[in-house]
Amino acid sequence: MQSISPRFSSFFSVYLASLIAPLTIAADVETELSVAPAVALRYSTEPGKYYQLQVKNDGRWDDEGFAVKGTGKPVAAFYASGEYRVVIPSRQWLLVWADEFDGNDLDVTKWEKEENNYGGGNNERQAYRTDPKYCFVSEGLLNIAVYRDPHVTSDGKSQPYSSARIRTQKRGDWKYGRVEVRAKMPNGQGIWPAVWMLPTESKYGGWAAGGEIDIVESRGCAVHETTGAIHFGAAWPNNAYLSHRYTFPERDAAEAFHIYTLEWNADEIKWFVDGNLCTTRTKDEWFSEAAQENPHAPFDQPFHLIINVAVDGRFFEKTDQRADLLPPDAFPQTLQVDYVRVYHWAE
Asked: Minimal CA–CA distance to 244: which of 214, 221, 266, 265?
């Protein structure tokens, strides 16, 4: 994030309160509840402006929580006691959402686990299941693991592999911004990890008329490169897409964690790997059959994030890769994600 001197905004009210009181939790059992000193903070906002709360630590001001976009209504919340200020940044990216995967479980306020045997089509051969075995958080990493576990649903659909797919739909979606993902890919043939985005409401129609943004996809054992893409136009099978490849100059996608970044605004979408620009797509390259007079459609709507690992399918049609060729001890094949961060640009 750029280092730019921000303007300052004062608090409308700040007060400090502390309380130590007994709490009865069961018959004949009493324990003391200790409540640390807290500060109630309240500040006014103007529509469209971004506000960042900061706390003073060892003489420096550190961001506290996410930046907030003003609505014209006051913001109020309680925080641990300390010295605070609110700044109004400009001309920089501001963190508005993130998951660092620092806990022991997947944060269900941010992610939903999906369960189905259909995997979105593409002749994929995995069942997406909600068991912790296939999606779990450990040692600061999200793990999505593929096993050679066959699964049959109640409607009789059978798949020979099991994996996981999680999404932020109804929990977090964004129109424009910067998405940054630090991840390490599996390297088994036929294994298809992806971090991507779909429109929350699909205003312009079903897939892919509503648009799709692929931040990063890895094609099985071809981990010397990574891909990204956009899908748009009309509903399948009359949709269109544009894709690109990036070749790693040194350690490949499975040897090391890399940072995959998408920057998206009304006029263009950019992809970066480890800070290196891969490609830029402009509004002159995409279109929407449902909104032909709108040059920004379909990528002018809120999109949510999806992380999954698929198996085989159309992504491998022009290759000789197939997961069935992997030996039994090659499983699980695991995508590891260190963090996902979403930023908005403050004018």
From this structure: 214
What number of other Cβ atoms are within 10 A of residue 65's Cβ? 12
- Cβ neighbors of 17 (< 8 A, separation 6 or more) are 37, 38, 40
Angle CA(24)–CA(25)–CA(30) in degrees, nearest 5? 50
pLDDT band of residue 121 (cuts 50, 70, 90) is confident
DSSP string, 257-282: -EEEEEEE-SSEEEEEETTEEEEEEE
Q: Is the pLDDT of residue 17 over 50?
A: no
Given 64, 124, 180, 212, the catalytic residue: 212
Q: Are 96 and 345 in contact (CB under 8 A)?
A: no
The larger pLDDT score, comparing residue 318 to residue 135, is at: 135
Quick one: residue 312, left, alpha or beta (phi over 0 = left, psi -120 to 50 = alpha)?
left
Catalytic residue among 64, 124, 180, 217: 217
For 63, how many CA atoms within 13 A lie in the half-sphere containing its CB?
A: 15
pLDDT at 5: 38
**What rounded mean pLDDT belongs to the chain?**
91
Amino acid identity of residue 180, one-letter, is E
Bond into 234 cis (ω within 30): no
Residue 217 is among the residues annotated as catalytic for this protein: yes
Q: How many CA atoms lie within 13 A of 51 on its CB side?
A: 24
Please give the helix or strand (H or E) that residue 324 lies within, else none.
none
Question: Is residue 293 annotated as a catalytic residue, yes or no?
Answer: no
**pTM as predicted:** 0.90
